[in-house]
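Forwarding the complex inputs:
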Amino acid sequence: MNPFALTGSVAIDAVRETGRIADFGARGAFAWVTGPFYWRAFFSALGRIGFASLPVVGLTAIFTGAALALNIYDGSLRFNAETFLPQILGVSIVRELGPVLAALMVAGRCSSAMAAEIGTMRVTEQIDAMSTLAVDPFKYLIAPRVLATTVALPFLVLIADIIGVYGGYLVAVYALDFSGPIFVTNIAEFLENRDVVSGLIKAAVFGFLISVMGCYYGYNSRGGAQGVGSATRTAVVAAAVVVLASNYFMTSLLVEF
Amino acid sequence: MASATKKISVRGLQKGFEGRDVLRGVDLDVDEGRSLVVIGGSGSGKSVFLKCLLGILKPDSGIVEIDGRNIARQTDSDRRYMTNQTGMLFQGAALFDSLTVWENIAFRLIYSENKSRKAARNKALECLTQVGLAPEVGNLQPSALSGGMQKRVSLARAIASEPRILFFDEPTTGLDPIMADVINNLIVDRVKAIGATAISITHDMASARKIADEIAMLYQGRIIWRGKPDEIDKSGNPMVDQFVNGRAEGPIQMTLRRR
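Prediction (whole assembly, two chains):
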């Protein structure tokens, strides 16, 4: 095939797929507006996505915070700036690592689960059955998951921020002989509201994107177990990529404010 | 006594996938309160036909009228009109595996008709009894049921809101002959009890003879014969004869891929 034609074909396919995902995301996000809103499905999704993700997000945050403290200390020693460890640690976790790592953990855990669950429902005709029972699958399956993930992720990130900083605190105080009260005071005085808020804004966007990827690839899966497996794999990869890509664009926007 | 009012009318229904025509102009009428069974071999387009009637697939062309209203246009209003009147038993039962049996049966009552969970549960248990299952089954997960029980639960779910039209997709596939006959009896019993119009698709001739007021045969995307169950053995149509008698030799040639 002509390389120009191939490039054009790939580009057209990519734009078309992006359009489909955007349309799907908009339908999923706003399906509840015209009612009914299925509260039971929403709270069930909130529990599975938010509450059940706490352990893995917490563990990721505490070890990342601890390792980051060691790295910052070791690096900053080279130019005698080790006293700035709390400030650098705080900003790194609250603005960047907390949101991104929590989002990647939720993407791995929940995007795959959504794709597998909805994909299985698709290939076993459960979604068709739902339509014949006069219940819109977008309102019952997609909207609750999209909203629950968008709502849950900022809370998860807030908790990840606290636990991550605490991980750094433990290393700084017990391994690097920092003073605990000074560590806390330095972080509290240095961090600004916009540092925390920008991380939470990112988290909400990540939550939306992760859930849309999981639901989209599950909803459109075809062809039995292999199709569901493929949808699950694609959903996780796509969710991770959009988290990392959108993180750059959001960061470049948010640092302006 | 069935009236002669047309409940469902299909005209020139066409549907294809990736350049392959599956339905090539299906014309069919079903009178109110009657049970029509569509027979046909594997790949003849039976399931596609049913999904077009249900609005799950959008036809390429043609008209599907329910009570004189063309639902093939697939506007939200048309779909609501369609789904509010219909119940469907899927080939694989298609029960929601995250819900209990009674929640499956009551799904439409709770989430579409806004009934209270208590009232919906009572109705679900009543439907369970009507399909010959004990109320205790209501608290089980669908995965704990046998294939025959899943089909019965799916039937209970289809009839729970007493729809005016019932669709059955291969209702006896995968069941032993005795359980298949139990399902056939339940279908006949429930369809008559709620006075519904029924369309079933199957390749099980015993099932077709039992549940049909009329049988139509779909072949190569068109209806090639239609008549009463007792007429099918002397249809005079060689393709119908071959299908009914299950012969490999005849005008219908199955495509076999040889190594």
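The mean pLDDT of chain A is 93.
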